[in-house]
Amino acid sequence: MTGIEIFQTWLIAFFTLALFSFLYKDNPVYKIAEHIFAGLSAGYYVGLIWDTVIIQQLWTPMTVDGRWWLIVPGVMGFLMFTRFWKKITWVSRIPLAFVMGVTAGIFLISQLHGLVLPQMRDTMLPLWNTQGYGQLFLTIIIVVGVISTLIYFYFSKEHTGALGVTAKVGIWFIMISFGAHFGYTVMGRVSLLIGRVQFLIEDWIGSFT
To answer: For residue 160, is it within any domain?
Structure first.
């Protein structure tokens, strides 16, 4: 390893251990690492947005391609900064409302095509096909899970009798879904921990040999 690579390895190991030191208690070393990480992240994203948004998606299309109509979103983006002046802070509500409306519309369409319609399609599959009893069992689970979950969120009638039993089945499906998502999140965090520990053992401690 070269001198620069050794320095980088030790620097990364220091900040990794500094962040892990919070497991013992809050301490100045952890705060230093936290502040440096927050500052670097903020600076990085400012530079990233300046290059990928301001330059590539606004300035270059306007000056090179002649798409001067982009000055409208550019001005609206600039109006966001009026929140720093109390007298004209109300102006920032105009672009903010536009962004929220557009984002809500895009999110609605994306959720409709990404979740709702595929779920409806999978619920309408034929119960029997050439894949045998295994696929039949899975299809029945999907249909029962979707219907019972929707019935659980049906509050126009008291959940008693057959409706109450179906709603309880829906609760089980909801809890299983939450558990699966939680487990997926935990495993993602564990994989990050494994990556850091592997770096400390192989790259940092391994550099002593």
So the answer is: yes
